[in-house]
Design a protein that fits this description.
Porin, 2 domains, 8-stranded antiparallel β-barrel, 4-stranded antiparallel beta sheet, signal
Length: 301
């Protein structure tokens, strides 16, 4: 019931933000539509009408903003050429404004390395979690964000999304889904494709630095910050003599995990790394010190 309630609340926030975003877009387009992304607006001081461009959600900030056309930043300089003043274009103003809305970004796919008290080698107590390195993976993405763009190079935002960790176990261990501490109920069964999965609602707070926009390449970006997560569910899947088996429960996964992340990319592509400071399993002294380190590729800042 806990993870169902969290999921319902999260989707309610998403739908609310989406409705606000649509209302804002409709109100902008009602000002006088020229084309799919252009409207006419009148300067309240001079009465001059100017063409402005609407940037659709997801293009850069994951929101709707208004950007003046290039002519709005042209002025006549004192320099003359062939007896006429030269028109010069100013740099685009780098204003600050809030960013918010529904997004599909920071799509992660990476490898998971289990760390045992700072070592990548598992101790005897944690040997039951010996895993297949190339098949123990992390997948996640963000669907909601809200923050503030201070200028063209720096912004801060809190985002929300989902994160899965798939631990592909080598052993035949079957765990009780509801007992804390984590307990093995069977280790003799001949099973295959044994996988222990945790699903979290992730909440990263991002500090992002960006370069200018390079033609044909996009921006270079570096982002880092803390990340928290609430457990939605745990799952164990395996194939036994009677076919596929799937069991759901908490599996003693930590109810709340916290850590830090870093991201670097160019354009829409990048790499990421995450490390969680607390243990994977809670109230399980035998498995204390077992932590999660993840790194891989990402799509979309």
């Amino acid at each position: 019931m806990r993870y169902i309630s969290l999921t319902v609340l999260f989707y309610a926030l998403i739908l609310t933000a989406a409705a606000q975003e649509k209302k804002r877009a409709d109100s902008l387009r009602s000002l006088g539509k020229i084309s799919a992304d252009t409207v006419i607006m009148e300067d309240v001081n001079t009465g001059e009408k100017r063409k402005v461009r609407i940037i659709v959600p997801g293009k850069d900030e994951g929101m709707i903003t208004i950007e003046k056309s290039e002519k709005a930043y042209q002025y006549d300089s004192d320099d003359k050429q062939d007896g006429k003043r030269v028109s010069v274009t100013k740099d685009h103003p780098r204003k600050s404004y809030p960013i918010y809305g529904v997004t599909l970004s920071r799509i992660d796919l990476g490898l998971v390395k289990l760390m045992d008290n700072g070592s990548f080698s598992l101790s005897d107590d944690n040997d039951i979690f010996d895993y297949r390195r190339g098949k123990t993976v992390n997948f996640g993405f963000d669907v909601l964000q809200a923050g503030y763009r201070f200028n063209d190079q720096f912004r801060i935002f809190l985002s929300g999304g989902f994160d899965w960790t798939y631990i592909r176990l080598k052993g035949n261990y079957i765990f009780d889904p509801d007992i804390v501490p984590l307990t093995v109920v069977d280790d003799q069964t001949d099973i295959r494709n044994n996988r222990l999965t945790s699903t979290y609602l992730r909440l990263p707070l991002t500090f992002e630095f960006r370069s200018k926009n390079y033609s044909g390449m996009g921006r270079m970006r570096f982002a880092f910050g803390p990340e928290g997560g609430f457990l939605l569910k745990g799952t164990q899947r395996y194939r036994g003599a009677d076919g596929k088996v799937k069991q759901r429960g908490d599996y003693a996964f930590n109810e709340f995990r916290y850590g830090a992340f870093a991201r670097f990319g160019v354009g829409a592509f990048g790499i990421y790394a995450k490390y969680y400071f607390n243990d994977i399993f809670e109230n399980s002294p035998q498995h204390a010190g077992l932590q999660n380190f993840t790194f891989g590729l990402m799509l979309g800042f």
